[in-house]
Write a structure and sequence with these properties.
mainly alpha, Four Helix Bundle (Hemerythrin (Met), subunit A), 183 residues, 2 strands, 6 helices
């Protein structure tokens, strides 16, 4: 059966990853509509699906190169682009200069996230990531952006420049030499 065939592009693990991508796209729709709460719900659904696809792949021996690449694309959408768009649109209330500055910082974040995922895949192929992550993983980066969103939404920190500084720091940490234990 194709659901349990490692060579099937639509095996069970990959279908769960496709659902992760779907949740990320739906979250982007709600961000564009200004419904950040619903977007965050779909982001968390994507996170659960990201954990689930890996567990399914390992349990049923479905891990394959296609699935590994698909998972990285899902991570890029759900844990890099989507949280960056969420925070960018939430902060989008300033002058043209502030919008351009925020855009530049979030482009830096997105490029950093993409680079981090590519580097992770290259190191995975070389077998270098078994004991620890080097740099913070993209799901952790997404969580940190969501925390910044909450801090901003609840009025704890409302200064755009401070928030953008934190985004830039998180982006830099994605590709840092910081070692984080791999589960």
């Amino acid at each position: 059966m194709f659901l349990y065939n490692k060579e099937s592009r639509f095996n069970l693990a990959n279908l769960v990853t496709f659902l992760n991508i779907t949740a990320g796209v739906i979250a982007l729709y709600f961000i564009q509509q200004g419904d950040f709460f619903t977007a965050i719900v779909f982001a968390w659904i994507a996170g659960v699906l990201d954990i689930l696809d890996g567990k399914i792949a390992r349990k049923f021996n479905l891990s394959c190169e296609f699935g590994i690449q698909l998972d990285s694309f899902a991570d890029f959408l759900s844990f890099v682009i989507m949280p960056a768009f969420l925070l960018f649109y939430a902060l989008l209330k300033g002058s043209a200069f502030e919008t351009l500055l925020a855009g530049a910082v979030f482009i830096y974040y997105i490029i950093s996230g993409l680079r981090r995922l590519i580097e992770f895949n290259l190191k995975s192929e070389a077998g270098d990531v078994a004991k620890y992550f080097e740099g913070i993983p993209t799901p952790l980066g997404a969580i940190l952006l969501w925390v910044l969103y909450l801090i901003y939404s609840y009025g704890v920190v409302t200064n755009l420049y401070i928030l953008l500084l934190f985004v830039a720091i998180i982006a830099t940490l994605l590709n840092s030499k910081l070692k984080i234990p791999h589960p």
